[in-house]
Automatic annotation (TrEMBL):
Residue span, HTH cro/C1-type domain: 11-71
Superkingdom field: Bacteria
Pfam family for this entry, one: HTH_26
Family annotation (SUPFAM superfamilies): lambda repressor-like DNA-binding domains (SSF47413)
GO molecular function, one term: DNA binding
Protein name (database record): HTH cro/C1-type domain-containing protein
Source species of the chain: Clostridium acetobutylicum (strain ATCC 824 / DSM 792 / JCM 1419 / IAM 19013 / LMG 5710 / NBRC 13948 / NRRL B-527 / VKM B-1787 / 2291 / W)
Classification lineage: Bacteria, Bacillati, Bacillota, Clostridia, Eubacteriales
Amino acid sequence: MTFDEQFKIELKRYMQDNFINPNILASKAGINKHVFTEILNNTSRKVYGDEVAGICNATGLTLKEILKLNKKDNPYVSMNKSSAVHRT
């Protein structure tokens, strides 16, 4: 699973679990609602850093919290700086 796929899955789950309206979240994140819809629903649409930052700020969550990252479950970020995995 790619970073984009993981991010989108977890973001959708968070929004559903917390009854968050996508248009309101898009507005708070500073993202056009049509672009936000593309982010959520278009599997070939990449998520850019500024969009991730806006979404994190709007939700009040860190990227790790959104992705539920930990060393064992996600290859993109390690909890330990010395063994961080970097992928492009």
